[in-house]
Design goal:
four-stranded mixed beta sheet; 260 residues; six-stranded mixed beta sheet; 33% strand; alpha+beta; 22% helix; 2 domains
């Protein structure tokens, strides 16, 4: 039975025509797989399946996903992320991860949770730095974290009454059922680059992952240092978000899953 396999032009360019032909013929494609996005079983003989190529600094790994979860694509990741994906394919650390948003590294804390908006649960990431974030090239002591994000297209919120608009070009990389990175457009063109990336893939709950695959997007909220804190429960996280919004200290956007 023929494989219902999608191999995009960019994946084909990376793996070569010969390997692409072998995949499409079923010579090197699996009979079944765990979707690299939702982690449920998939069968390329029974349903459309995407080839997803993770490319690190030195190595590359080919994974498979339901076509309804992810399109066939090439995803640029760090070598450390790639090794983590390999282990997952074959936990939330609770620690903030470094991200280059200024000439010096700012440290961002990232919390995942479900947020209720207009009667429906949405997967969310809440980002808060551990210190003020200065504008690149600035020697001042001010905090430009929110203005920098607003310039990128994030919207200021005064209340959480509606889903924020989609910010095209940005995306959330959810692979092997774990959170790997928030991607932004590459100023030099080409593949997106990591705006934030986990030291090691972050675990998310089944409910969060299910909501992300249902909506095919994740809501990202960002607030200045000291606005949200590390809340232990989702109801407390929501209270902190509402307070930050009321105080004019919250921006947000809906980010598609990587490649969507």
């Amino acid at each position: 039975m023929p494989r219902m396999l999608d191999v995009s032009d960019e994946v084909r360019a990376e793996i070569g025509d010969e390997e692409a032909a072998r995949l499409l013929a079923g010579d090197s494609a699996p009979g079944s797989y765990d979707c690299t996005s939702c982690r449920t079983p998939g069968h390329p003989e029974q349903e459309r399946t995407s080839t997803v190529l993770f490319v690190g600094d030195e190595t590359a790994v080919l994974a498979f996903a339901h076509a309804t979860c992810l399109p066939s694509q090439v995803v640029q990741v760090t070598e450390a992320q790639l090794q983590g994906a390999v282990r997952a394919i074959g936990g939330d650390t609770g620690e903030p991860a470094p991200v280059d948003v200024t000439p010096e590294q700012a440290v961002l804390g990232v919390t995942s949770g479900l947020v209720l908006i207009a009667g429906e649960l949405h997967p969310a990431l809440v980002v808060e730095p551990t210190a003020p974030v200065a504008r690149p090239g600035s020697f001042g002591t001010g905090d430009d974290f929110l203005p920098l994000l607003i310039e990128q297209g994030f919207m200021p919120l005064t209340e959480l009454s509606a889903v924020p608009p989609v910010l095209h070009g940005w995306s959330v990389l959810l692979a092997a059922g774990q959170l790997h990175a928030v991607l932004q457009p590459n100023p030099a063109g080409g593949h997106p680059v990591a705006w934030w990336q986990a030291h090691q893939p972050l675990q998310v709950t089944d409910g969060w992952r299910s909501a992300a695959n249902k909506h095919q997007q994740v809501l990202m909220f960002a607030a200045p240092v000291g606005s949200i804190g590390r809340q232990p429960r989702e109801d407390l996280l929501r209270d902190a978000l509402d307070k930050a919004a009321a105080n004019g200290k919250l921006v947000a956007a809906a980010l598609p899953l990587a490649g969507v």
